[in-house]
Amino acid sequence: MENPLTSAVIFDLDGTLIDSMRAFTEIVSSNLEKNGIIVTTESMETIGIRLLTKFQTPQINSGFRLVFGVFWNIGRELGLGRMKSLIFAFSCINKVKSVYENAPIFPDVKQSLSILTNHGFQLGICTNASRKQLEETIEKHDIKDFFHPRALVSRDDVLRIKPDPEGLLLAIEACSTSPQLSFFLGDMPVDILAGNDAGVKTIGLTTGLVNESILHRYSTPSTVVDSLEQATSWILASRNLE
């Protein structure tokens, strides 16, 4: 039976718990430079916006093809031919593993997770990363014990990935609560879209690739904050108002 007092906080992984998005950007930039394309902050933002529109609708989970498609589209958006885009995509994919091996967690992660746990929240993760990447990351950074073991949802656990709410709803169900008593934190509009469709309160974070303006332009978050520490304060204040 559902416990009406239980509340859940579900997190995205990349750009939310781990500082991986800058490493992904460096992978893209270095491989583009090999093709004679110099990437600026402005051009990366433009690429990001174009890709947001491509991947704004729910995608059937396709594992490798999904990751390949992201890098392939970046190459094509910047004018690479089909063969060069193919080589570019595979070069980027070969370095993805190193991102998860080397990306640090954000400095306020453990404190924020501890505070939420101490206030009685059930915690989970919903990510478009693979299950292997998810499990290795949380074990490496010693944060696995903060999360409900059945509320760790990767792209390998669903038919349709974010922005479809399927994975988020699975994590909430594992926490034995309802969307109305849940929060979802993410750094991309697809996270906010998934959360809104699931019926949870959504918190956009500017710790990834996009800023507050883009989060509001492509989604409708309940709030936007600059850190997990700020997000935690907002969650506690929101629950006290209920």
| Name of the CATH class of the largest domain | Alpha Beta
Low-confidence stretches: none
Counting H and I runs of at least 4 residues, what is the number of helices?
10
What is the approximate shape?
Answer: globular
What does the secondary structure layout of this molecule look like, with pairings?
Layout: E1 7-11, H1 21-33, H2 41-54, E2 59-60, H3 64-77, H4 82-102, H5 109-118, E3 121-126, H6 131-140, E4 152-153, E5 160-161, H7 166-174, E6 182-186, H8 189-198, E7 201-205, H9 212-218, E8 223-225, H10 228-241
Parallel strand pairs: 1-3, 1-6, 3-4, 6-7, 7-8
Antiparallel strand pairs: 2-5
Helix pairs in contact: 1-4, 3-4, 5-10
Give the structure's gist in a few sentences.
The chain has 10 helices and 8 strands. It starts with 6 loop residues before the first strand and ends with a helix.
Can you put this structure into words, describing what you see?
The structure is a single chain. The chain folds into two domains: 7-19 and 104-241, HAD superfamily/HAD-like (Rossmann fold); 21-102. α6 (131-140) links the parallel β3 and β4. It is globular, with a radius of gyration of 18 Å. The protein has a six-stranded parallel sheet with strand order 4-3-1-6-7-8, with helices on both faces. Strands 2-5 form a two-stranded antiparallel ribbon. It is 50% helix and 12% strand. With 242 residues, the protein is α/β, with parallel strands linked by helices. It has helices at residues 21-33, 41-54, 64-77, 82-102, 109-118, 131-140, 166-174, 189-198, 212-218, 228-241, and strands at residues 7-11, 59-60, 121-126, 152-153, 160-161, 182-186, 201-205, 223-225.
